[in-house]
Amino acid sequence: EVQLVESGGGLVKPGGSLRLSCAASGLTFSSYSMNWVRQAPGKGLEWVSSISSSSSYIYYADSVKGRFTISRDNAKNSLYLQMNSLRAEDTAVYYCARQVNWGRFDPWGQGTLVTVSS
Amino acid sequence: QSALTQPASVSGSPGQSITISCTGTSSDVGGYNYVSWYQQHPGKAPKLMIYEVSNRPSGVSNRFSGSKSGNTASLTISGLQAEDEADYYCSSYTTGSTNVVFGGGTKLTVL
């Protein structure tokens, strides 16, 4: 069974930094593109970033470009999201998801909550 | 990149069928057969229900079906059951720098 487990969320002050991790198991991690998708409280899903299997292709939503950095370590079956210059509007549950094909995310992790507040 | 347009809410009685629309442009929904649908129950992670417009992953009930016409994709749920009450999101591949766009979500209420 494919499992994705996020960690690293928490409370951080505006302007602060946080690094999220996503540990993958039950799949050949190095074969798949991976994504981060977030959901602000009571709001819809917002795609954040994606990274190809070999890290050759990386994409970001305009809302996080220049502040967030996605990376992966295929040897450790892990995905990361380094978040800098955090703002209140970055408050959300952050999900990692395997990308099976364009726009096909399956499965998703359980999510980790990031709260940006003073 | 603008989000895809979905109705905020739909409702139906048990046993009935409902359809949720997802409208985009020729740069996303209309241009590619990479439309997916996700179901999300409160406090839970999204679950893939339909991919590539009309394909169901293994384990998803055949009461769920997808289609597309022009720039609008649709998710139909037949034989509504109480457990179908959830939020539903569409997504599509899109040209440009982001390559993925989601709809705003639709809350399905089973009356």
Identify the most extensive interface between protein chains: A-B, 25 and 29 residues
What does the main sheet of chain B amount to?
A: 6 strands, mixed
Overall average pLDDT of chain A:
96
Helix residue percentage of chain B: under 10%
Shape of chain A: globular
Q: Look at the structure and give the mean pLDDT of chain B.
A: 95
- In total, the number of strands of chain B is 9
Q: What's the SSE pattern of chain B?
A: EEEEEEEEE
Series of secondary-structure elements of chain A, N-terminal to C-terminal: EEEEEEEEEEE
Taking pLDDT < 50 over at least 5 consecutive residues as the criterion, the unreliable ranges of chain A are none
Q: Give the fraction of residues assigned to helices of chain A.
A: under 10%
Radius of gyration of chain B: 13 Å
The number of helical runs of chain A is: 0
Quaternary form: heterodimer
The helix/strand class of chain B is mainly beta
* Helix count from the secondary structure assignment of chain B: 0
Strand content of chain B: 35-45%
The largest pleated sheet of chain A is described as: 7 strands, mixed
Q: Specify Rg of chain A, calculated over alpha carbons.
A: 13 Å
Q: Could you give the count of β-strands of chain A?
A: 11
User: What does the overall shape of chain B look like?
Assistant: globular
Description:
- The complex is a heterodimer of chains A (118) and B (111).
- Helix content of chain A is 0%, strand content 55%.
- Chain A is built from no helices and eleven strands.
- In chain A, a hairpin with a 5-residue loop joins strand 4 (33-39) and strand 5 (45-51).
- By secondary structure, chain B is mainly β.
- Helix content of chain B is 0%, strand content 43%.
- In chain B, a hairpin with a 6-residue loop joins strand 7 and strand 8.
- The N and C termini of chain B lie far apart (35 Å).
- The A-B interface holds A 35, 37, 44-47, 50, 59-62, 95, 97, 100-111 and B 1, 3, 32, 34-36, 38, 40, 45-48, 51-52, 57, 87, 89, 91-93, 97-105.
